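Entry 12.
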Amino acid sequence: MNYLPLHPSLRLYQTLTLLAALLMLLPLPIMQYVGEEGLMAVKSYEMFVRNDWLHPSILGMVWPHSPLWHWPVIIISKIIGWEHVDIAVRLVSVIATWLTALAAGLMGQWLFCRSNPHAGWLTALVYLSLGEVAFWYGWLGYVDATFGLFIFSAIAALWRALADEHTGWFILSLLLISLAFMTKNITAYALFGAAGLVLIWRLQRWNLLKNPVFLISGILALSVPLLWQSFIVPAGANTATTTINDVLRNYTGYGAIAFISHWLSFPFVFLFRALPVSLFLAWLWVRRKHQFQRNETLTTLSLVLLICFLPFWISAGATPRYLVPLYGLVALLLTGLLLQLDSVRFRQGFLLIALLVILKIPYSLAVLPYIKDWRPERDVKVVSEEILRLTENAPLYTQNDVATGLAITAYIDVWRQQRPPVTWWSDNSKITAYILAEVPTPSLGQLIKKWSLRGDHIYLYYHTSAPSGTIK
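Predicted 3D structure (tokens):
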């Protein structure tokens, strides 16, 4: 029985795309903090409590991180309540994913409308159905979805600017890449510049490098990190320090085997995480000997992707997380290849996309919560509630900054908003307080309880200034 016509209608494109977008919301109220989500919630809450929108802090210590991502988290949390900040951090990512799909759709319509009048909707659907986006980073409360939104949109706008020699598109691209820097770090400029060089070469727009408007506006945009460092970042700190350290960690301390293993495996990891369309097209090419036709657009897309992928490929420690900003380009490339298929193969690919969208429902409601939360040794909320009962309204500090400890801190901060946020414990024997620790630290005081949680250990100590203090 045929459930889909050989050529999907506009209504079918729209329905499936909107369904894929709405299903991004499913994990938001269900999942406990995953990985660095607790850290992002802590930073946002501390910014709000300190009424400082420019300087994020972690456990009371100001860090020279870019603050933009936290602004919508603060706004949303003020609307829905800070006790739901876990939803707020994810909602920012979901909105960024929707906007990236919109940008990809607009770009896809511009590039491929001659091949298919519904190319824009198809591109947006392909993006929302990419495995990495649909199942993980598209909703996870990290900065990556927002970072990816601004980088991809900046490259897309730059492409339009160079193709049409249009100043407005160029200024928009510079604004977007500056927002990317304000979201995460200066690596945004590296990806933008690499993509720009490829586009200038492919479109032969070298003359624009001499155009005063393009030149001056470009210099102004590139000065944003310097201005930010000079006027916003606290004295003695450097906004590029963590970025440089992260880059160095990906290249140093590894043996030859690690590099070779990474070089061989990383392209396949990238391909697999763009399932199902990537694997379907690879199967057609390898097993069915399907011949895809190269054209100017697909060649340019491939080269831009390659130049942006290369820095992460040649390292040894880069993770798939770094590739999130590239998935908008991946969606465009996959769409261009899908549009080369005959109606039968295209229908098969479309059915695979529809199947993945439907699989999002059991994955979000059962599979993911079971993997991450439903086993007792992974239930962070239960431990957080117990710590809250044990400490009541007493001062609480921490010496635990791993993901599990930060998740506990994030919950406790918003559950007792009448108290100051949990901050880092510095040795002060005159303070009577409870202290969370990551490792056994008898010098902190009397051990109240120990928990094993998500592969980590949590220790709760009671520190008193009295020689023989008693626990209240």
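Annotation: Residues 468-472 have pLDDT under 50 and may be disordered. The two ends are 71 Å apart (CA to CA).
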